[in-house]
Write a structure and sequence with these properties.
Layout: H1 2-11, H2 20-26, H3 29-70, H4 76-83, H5 90-107, H6 116-136, H7 139-171, H8 176-238
Helix pairs in contact: 1-7, 3-7, 3-8, 4-5, 5-6, 5-8, 6-8, 7-8
Family: Belongs to the ExbB/TolQ family.
GO cellular component, one term: plasma membrane
Function: Part of the Tol-Pal system, which plays a role in outer membrane invagination during cell division and is important for maintaining outer membrane integrity.
Length: 239
C-alpha cells in the first residue's frame, strides 16, 4: 500500500519542464505513444503538403507553357515529334496520347476512319483520369489524418486524465499543484492532435480544389482538341 502511494505521489510531483520534450517524457506510456504517433503523422502530412504544393505548381506551369506552344500555330506533327520522345504529363500527355492514336489509324493498312473519333475521345478520357489519379495520390492520407487525429489526441487525453485521477485517489492529495501537471500532460495530447489535423484538413481542401481546376482545364483542352481532330477527319473523308 505504501509503495502504491509512493508511486502515485511521484506521478503527481510538480513538473518544472514544460517544454515539448519534457511534457512527452513525463507523460504515461499510452499518452507517450499517442503523442509520438501524432508527431509522426504531422511530419508525414507536412512532407505530403510540400510535395503536392511543388507538384501542382509545376503542373500549372507546364500547362501554361504547353498552351502557349499549342496555340502559337506550330504544326501538330512537329509538336508531336518534339514531345513523343520524352515522358509527358498533363496537357502534353493528353496531346501525345491522342496524336498517337491518330497516327496509328493513319498508318494502318486499311486507313479506316470509322470509329476514330470515338477511339481518340476514349484515349483522352483515360489519360485525363490517370492524370487526376496522379494529382490525387496521397491526398487520402491528409484526409485520414485530418479526420482521425483529434480523436486520437482525445483518447490520449482521456487516458492521461484517468491516470491522474487514479493517482489522486491513491494519494488523497487534491491540491492544484498536484493535479495540474498530470492534467496538462494529458491535454497536451489533444493539442498535438489538433496541430496534426488542422494543416491536414486545410491542405486537403485546398488541393482538392486545385485538382478540380486542373481536371477542368484538361477536359476543356480535350474537348477543343477533339473538335480539331474531328474537322480533320471530316476533311479526309470528304477528300
Amino acid at each position: 500500500m505504501e509503495a502504491t502511494a509512493d508511486m502515485a505521489q511521484t506521478a503527481l510531483a510538480p513538473v518544472t519542464d514544460v517544454s515539448l520534450l519534457g511534457l512527452i517524457m513525463n507523460a504515461g506510456l499510452v499518452v507517450q505513444i499517442v503523442m509520438l504517433g501524432l508527431m509522426a503523422a504531422s511530419v508525414w502530412c507536412w512532407a505530403i503538403i510540400i510535395d503536392k504544393a511543388i507538384l501542382f505548381s509545376r503542373s500549372r506551369a507546364a500547362m501554361n507553357r504547353f498552351e502557349q506552344v499549342f496555340w502559337s500555330g506550330q504544326s501538330l506533327e512537329e509538336l508531336y515529334r518534339s514531345l513523343s520522345q520524352r515522358q509527358n504529363y498533363g496537357m502534353a500527355g493528353l496531346f501525345v496520347s491522342a496524336m498517337r492514336e491518330w497516327k496509328r489509324s493513319l498508318e494502318s493498312p486499311g486507313r479506316s476512319f470509322l470509329g476514330l473519333q470515338a477511339r481518340i475521345e476514349k484515349v483522352m478520357d483515360v489519360t485525363v483520369q490517370r492524370e487526376v489519379e496522379r494529382l490525387e495520390s496521397k491526398l487520402l492520407v491528409l484526409a485520414t489524418v485530418g479526420s482521425s487525429s483529434p480523436f486520437i489526441g482525445l483518447f490520449g487525453t482521456v487516458v492521461g486524465i484517468m491516470t491522474a485521477f487514479q493517482s489522486i485517489a491513491a494519494t488523497k492529495n487534491t491540491s492544484l499543484a498536484a493535479v495540474a501537471p498530470g492534467i496538462s500532460e494529458a491535454l497536451f495530447a489533444t493539442a498535438m492532435g489538433l496541430v496534426a489535423a488542422i494543416p491536414a484538413v486545410i491542405a486537403y481542401n485546398k488541393f482538392n480544389a486545385e485538382v478540380a481546376k486542373q481536371q477542368a482545364r484538361l477536359e476543356g483542352f480535350a474537348d477543343e482538341f477533339s473538335a480539331i481532330l474531328s474537322r480533320q477527319i471530316d476533311e479526309r473523308l470528304a477528300a
